[in-house]
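User: quick one, fold this
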Amino acid sequence: MGFLCNNQQRIALSHLAATVLESDCLLFGCMDKSQSKPSMHAMINRIFQNSFDRSDASIEMRILRQKETYLDLYGKNLSGEVKNFTDRLLKKERRLLTDKIERLLSAAAFVNRPVSLNNETMKILAASHEDAFYRTHPARYIRAVLEEYASLDSLTRKEIYFRQTIEQLERHARECAVIEIKYVDNPNRYRLIPAFIRPDIYRTHLYLAGFSCQEGACRNPVSCRIDGIETIQYIRPGSPSPSFRALEKAVKEQGIQYLSGQKSHIRIRLSREGISKYRRLTFQRPPFTSIEGAGKDIYVFDIPEYQAQVYFFKFGRDAVILEPETLKQDFINRYREALAAYGAPHAMPDR
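Assistant:
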C-alpha cells in the first residue's frame, strides 16, 4: 500500500485551480526560503498536507472513517442484515465520492506544473491507501485535492492554509493560556488570553478574539486577523476569565474586527453624494448614533477611529471629519500624502 514515487512530479491543473492557487499564494504570503517571492512549490505542498485528511479526494480514507462510524453506531458484531445494509451505504458513498472526483479531474488541464514534493508530502503519499483509486498516479491524487481546494470559498481556503495556526490558538484557548503574538511586519509583541476564532459578519477574514493581558491582568477585549499573525509563543498558564459573555456581547455590538479599538465620539459632515454613498455602500458600514445640523448632514458615530478610517476614507470630499481632531488630521495627512505621490506641486488645502 502507498505510493512509490519520485519527489519530482508534474501536476496538471485546471484554469480555476491554477488561478486560485497563484492568487492565494500571493495573498497568504507563501514565500520561498529567501522570503523574496511567492513559492508555488511551497503552496502546493502546504495545501495538500493541510487538507488531504479532510478532502473528498481521499476516497479510501473517507470510506474507512464512515465504516468506523457505522461500527461505533451498531457495534462490531453486526447481524447479517445490518452488515448488508451498511455495505450498501458504503458502496453508495464510494460511488458519490468517485463521481465527484472524476468530475474534478475531467476539467481540461490549463497548466502542467513541475512541483518538488517535500518530505512531509512524501511521507503522506507513502502511507496512503489512495493508490487503490489513483493507482500509480500520485500526481492525480494531489491534483484532485488541489482542484477541490480551488472550488471552495475564500474563507474555507484560509482555514485550510492557516490550519496549524488555528489549531495552535484553539489549543491555547482551551487551556486559557497567556500567549504572546507577533504580527507580520511589526516588531512589537502583544500578550493576550485567546478565547475563540471566528469570521467577521461579511466572512472575509478570520479573527482571534481574546483579552489583552499585561502584568497578569486581563483587560480589554482585543482581536487580530489570523493571517496577520507571524509567531505565537506560549508564556504561562492562565485562568478562566469571567468575561467571556462580555466578549461575546462586544463582538456582537462592535464586530470582531474592531474589538481592539477604543470607541470615539466621531462627527462627520456628509455631502448630498456622501449621504447617498452611506445609504448605498453597506459593506462594513458603521451604524450612526444620531444625525445633527440644520441640513441634517452631520452624522454622529460612537465607534473606533479605525472603523471610520476603513469606511469613510474612500468617500473623499464627500465625508469631512469634524471631530475628533486626531482623526481629522489623520485624514488630512493621508490625503496629502496620496496627492504628493501623484507629483502634485501643492498640498491639498484643509476643509
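User: anything notable?
Assistant: The chain has three domains: 8-152, 162-258, 263-341.
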